[in-house]
Structure formats: structure tokens, C-alpha cells
Amino acid sequence: MNVERIAGFVLAALSLVAVAYHMLAAHVMLQDFIPLLNTHLSFCLVLVFLNGFIKEKGIKRFWCLALLLFSLIAVGYVQLFWAELQMRAFFNTKLDLIIGVLLIVLVIEGTRQSFGYVMPIIVTVVIIYPFFGHFLPEPFFTRSLSVPKTIANLSVGLQGAGIYGMFLSASIYYVFLFVIFGGLLRATGGTQFFQSLARLVAGRLQGGPALVSVVSSGLFGSLSGSTLTNVALTGSFTIPLMKSVGYEPEQAGAVESAASNGGGILPPVMGVGAFLMAGMTDIPYVQICAMAVLPAILYYLTVGTYVYLRAGQLKIPKQDSEGIDKKELLLESSKFVVPLVIIIVLLVGGYTVMFTAFWAVVSSITVALIRKKTRPSLKQFIEGFTKGAVGGAGVGMMTACIALLGSTFTMTGLGVKLSYGVEIWSGGYTLAALAIIWIVSVVVGMGGIGFAAYLVVSMFAVPALVKVGVPFAQSHFFIYFACLFSGVTPPIAIAAVVASKIAGGRYLKTAIESGKIAAAGLLLPLMLAFIPIIMLQPVNPLSESIKLASFMISLLTLQVAFVGYYVRDCDLRERIIAAVSALLLLIFIIASKYLLLILGVGLFILVTFSQWRKKKHDTLVLA
User: Fold this and answer.
1) N or C: less crowded end of the chain, CB within 10 Å?
2) CB 188 within 8 A of CB 384
């Protein structure tokens, strides 16, 4: 056996052990809290670096092996001496501090290997901030902190901060098993089921092939939690299909980018975002999902509207769905429907997320084994558990890395100062504060890791938004949506990078087109603050219902302006009128000036009437 095969076998075995451990921990208190966190961190470090060892070549492979050995030493030390470390917190020995530095480096490097450079660079800059903050002007000034105190606070102090704090516990209790569930669902045929279901539901409509992408990417993205992974997996099928029926490469790539990116707001799973938000806010998971329903519907209706209008403009035919065996699809649906029902029932019943995830995994395995015809092999199950465990380990690395940032914010007072800075820079105006935080969220989230950006920005931005009058829940959703949709926000739009490669289109044009399609996602963060009824938390139901209707009309008119098609092709005059209509309605939502509402709706009616006349004229000519 070669080295790769041996390492692959070890990775699979460790993944199964990690799954078994976390499944058991959902029912039994296996260890005290700190050893539990440390065991979880051990699995995360080892799985990430062993996976890196398998993927890398040459000197990088030896680097991963060294990291693996250092990980075992560091976590082994904490596991053996955690009680003593707590007793001598902030009065640590030199060996304690060496282990602490090692843990910090390992967590940052593990995050880099799992998600790239963006977040590790941000965290590294923030970690060294306490040592030069006394040279900076307010609001960034801070007293110089000692190296031992900083290391203890970030790692081996074990006082509920740093690596062994709230964020890593969220990885255990809210995320890891659900990532396992996602990996298992993919291994047992979930991707194929979503694609077949999408073809059946959307295939016979105008723009069917692209609507297939919208439906399948949304469903799969809700489970995968990764926009880039979603684009790569579903896009490999949907993008060639869209191109084959007439969509330009940039349009096909943009549709896939926008559809995949929205999976993070689609209940009931919402990637890992809903679980992390529940852990951060103490808002029940079920309530978070309920608040996300209407935003998700609005977003995917907008994406679907673009697809429908563009198909009409390009005269793309409907897709034949006769090749789908409906009986087989119904039987296969149990693999997804049964676990989904169990998740909903248990969460509504008040059971913990970890307990619910346990039964989701068990039900997924059980249902997959029932039918002999489609029963996955043992190898498929092992691959599903392995991919899920490695994915969950990567999320664990990210949460531990962000914990370093969060502890530095608290230790230096930077979080409070940034929050106060936003309040000062915005002059106390809600719209200005929202604009500042939206820009920060997009910049931090441009690396394509929306949930990580949300964790970072929410630490200082939520208090600032609450101070200027945005309710607590809306503040968290505002930041989460802004960070998530940075993936399709030009000029970066990292989801478009992957999609343009698959489609063979130009990256920048794909990025701009994805921004047009995802218009609802880019506007939703702002609308959450001004139309609370979107999150089912109305303050003034009548007024907010009018604003909600205005927002829906504005989304339609925006797509008409972007695409240049409504019922028939639009001329330049009609596109300008549609754009002005959308702009007036959006300003009305913020300013509450009903004259703007009347003008906006009036222009929408004007465009609709003009298009109706064109259609009537074309019908008479053909007759």
C-alpha cells in the first residue's frame, strides 16, 4: 500500500471515530466541558492536517505531518493538565505559554488550509494589535498588554475565552453533526434527487433549465453551507445545461452563482448560519428559521424572475421532463423528506440542536438502507462520513480562529471602541450606520466564507446597530445577510470566480450579472431594518405590508430594467422608467413619503401598459 492509501484509510477511520464520539456526546456527558472542547479540537486539527497531508505533495506534505504531530502534543498537554491550567490561569509556566503559542499557530494554519488566507490574515493582524495599539489614535488606542497575559487569554487560560470558549462550543453543539448529515445526504444520492426534483418542478416552465439550477442549487446549498462547494457541485451539471439551450456563458454562470449563494438563507438548515446564530444570540433555532422564510422566498422569487424574463428574451424552450421516473423520484424522496420532518418535529418540540442532528443522521442512514435497489455501499457511507467529518473539522477550525479575534476584541476593548466608532461616524443616523456596517460586512465576507464574516462583524456591529434603533434580531440578520451575499457582490463576487471557470465565461461580466440576479439579496439587509414584517416581527403591520408590497414591485421592475424584457423586449425608454420606478419605491420604503409610492407604482403601471400594447400589437400582426 502506498502512503496516500494508508493515510486515506487512517483519515476514514478517524472520521468514523469522530462521528461516533459526537453522536454519543449528543446523549451522554462523556467528559467535563474543557476536555470535551479539547477532544473536539483534537479531532478538528488532526482531520484537517491529515487531509492536507493526503492532498499536498513534496515539502508541503512534510509540513502537514509536522503540524499533525505538534497538534497531538498540544492537545495532549491540555488534556492531561487542564485542571492545573485553570488553577494557574494568567500565571502560567513557560511550557504552558509555549503550548499556548503552538495552539494559536495551529488553529490559524488549520483555518488557512480549510478556507484560505483571508480570515487568518485578519485574525493575525488583530492578535498582534494589543502590542502596538498604544501607538494608534482613538478609537484604536489601547494599553500595551503583556505577552504572557495575551497568550493565556487566547489559549491556555481556559477561562471561557479564546480558543476554548463560546465559539468552539458552538461548533460542537450546533454545527458538527449537521455537517456530517450534509455529507451523508450527498453520499446517499441527495444531489441527484435535488436535480431530478428540480427538473420535474421547474422543467416545464419558461426558462426551465435555469430554473432547475435555481431550485437544485438552493436546496443543496441549504445543506452544504458552502457557496463555492455548491457552485462546483451543482454547477458542473446545471451550467452546461443552461448553455446548451441558449444562455450565454456569463448568464449561466451568474444564475448558478446567485442560486447557490442563497442556500445560506433557505430554511430549515440554512447552511451552518442558523445554528451559529442560535448559539450567538440565544434565539431559538426554530424562530430563526421562521424569520428567514419570507426573505428566502423573496430572494428566490427574484432569481426566478430574472431566469423567466431572460428565457423569454432569448426564446429558450421549455425542458422536457418526461425522462424522469416519478415513481422512482417519490420513493427516493424519503431520503430527504424523512430526516427533514424529523429535524422540524424535534426542533419545534424543543429538543437541542445536537440531539436533533443525531436523529437526522440516524434517520438518513436508516432510510438509505431500506431499498435494496438504491442502497448505498459501505464505501459510499464511509466516504460520506469522511467528507462530512473533514468539512465539520474545517468549520471547527474557523470557529476557533474567530474566537482568537473575539477574545482580542474583549481584552483590548476594541469591540466596544469599534461599536462606539460606528455610532460616531454615522452621526447616530440609522441609515448611515447600516451603510457603514454593510460595507464592512461585504469587505470581510469577500473571501466567500459568509458565516465566518458574520461571526467577526457581529461582535462589534450588533451593539452599534442596537444603539441607533435597529432591534437585536434584525441587527444579526442584517449582518448575516450582508456577509453572505458578499459572495455575489461585484467587483469581487467570489462565487462568480468558480462559476465563470465552469461556464468558460468572462469573470467580471459574470460577477456583474450575478449582482443583478441577486438584487434581492443585496437589498434585503437594508429592508430587514425598515420592514420588520419580512422577519414576521411587525411593529406597524399596515404600513409595513404596504412597504413589503412596494419592495416586491421594486424587485420586479429592477429585473425588467436589468434584463430589458417584460412581456416583450423593452426599449431604452421602458427600461429607464422601470429603473426609476424601482428607485422611487425603494426610497419610499426608507423615507415613508407616500408621494414616492404613488409615483413609483404609477411608473410601474405605465411600463406594464406599454408592454401590454406591444403584445396586443404583435398578436394582431400575427393574426
Assistant:
1) C
2) yes
d(CA 444, CA 453): 6
**Could you please report the per-residue DSSP string of 289-344?**
HHHHHHHHHHHHHHHHHHHHHHHHHHTPPPPP-TTS-HHHHHHHTHHHHHHHHHHH
pLDDT over 80 (residue 59): yes
What distance in Å separates the CA atoms of residue 234 and residue 411, rounded to the nearest whole number?
43
Radius of gyration of the chain (CA): 25
CB atoms inside a 10 Å sphere around CB 601: 18
Nearest CA to 334 out of 218, 185, 176 is that of: 185
Residue type, 288: I
pLDDT of residue 300: 93
pLDDT one-digit tens code per residue, 486-514: 888 887 777 887 788 888 888 889 989 99
**Average pLDDT value for the chain:** 86
Cβ(404)–Cβ(167) below 8 Å: no
Strand partners, 565: 569
Q: How far is the C-alpha of 503 from the C-alpha of 482, rounded, in Å?
A: 26
Give the CA distances from residue 96 to residues 32, 299, 349, in Å, rounded to whole numbers and listed in that order: 20, 50, 44
Q: Over 539-581, what HEC string results?
A: CCHHHHHHHHHHHHHHHHHHHHHHHCECCCECCHHHHHHHHHH
Largest distance between two CA atoms of the chain: 92
**Residues ≥6 apart with Cβ < 8 Å to 110:** 44, 45, 48, 49, 67, 394, 397, 400, 401
The pLDDT tens digits for 550-580 are 999 999 999 999 999 998 999 999 999 999 9
If you count DSSP H runs as helices and E runs as strands, how many of each does the chain have, helices first? 28, 0
* The pLDDT value given to residue 40: 94
- Looking at residue 534, its amino acid is I
Q: Does residue 525 contact residue 478 with C-beta atoms inside 8 Å?
A: yes
pLDDT of residue 22: 92
Residue 1 has pLDDT above 80, yes or no: no
Q: Write down the pLDDT at residue 14.
A: 95
**pLDDT tens-digit map of 399-439:** 898 889 888 887 887 777 788 888 888 888 899 999 999 98
Q: Where are the alpha helices (DSSP H) in 138-284?
A: 147-151, 166-170, 176-187, 190-202, 208-224, 227-244, 249-261, 273-281
Domain locations along the chain? 3-162, 172-395, 546-623
Residue 375 gets which letter from DSSP? Answer: P
The x, y and z cell numbers of residue 118, run together, are 483571508
Using an 8 Å Cβ cutoff, are 278 and 353 in contact?
yes
DSSP 3-state helix, strand, coil percentages of the chain (rounded to 5)? Answer: 80, 0, 20
212: Cα within 13 Å, side-chain hemisphere: 28
Q: What pLDDT does 77 receive?
A: 95
Using CB atoms within 10 A of its CB, is residue 73 exposed (0-12), middle (13-18) or buried (19+)?
exposed
Burial class (CB in 10 A: 0-12, 13-18, 19+), 623: exposed
Whole-number Cα distances in Å, 87 to 90, 91, 147: 9, 9, 19
Q: What letter does residue 175 receive in the DSSP assignment? A: I
Q: pLDDT tier at 320 (50, 70, 90 boundaries)? A: low
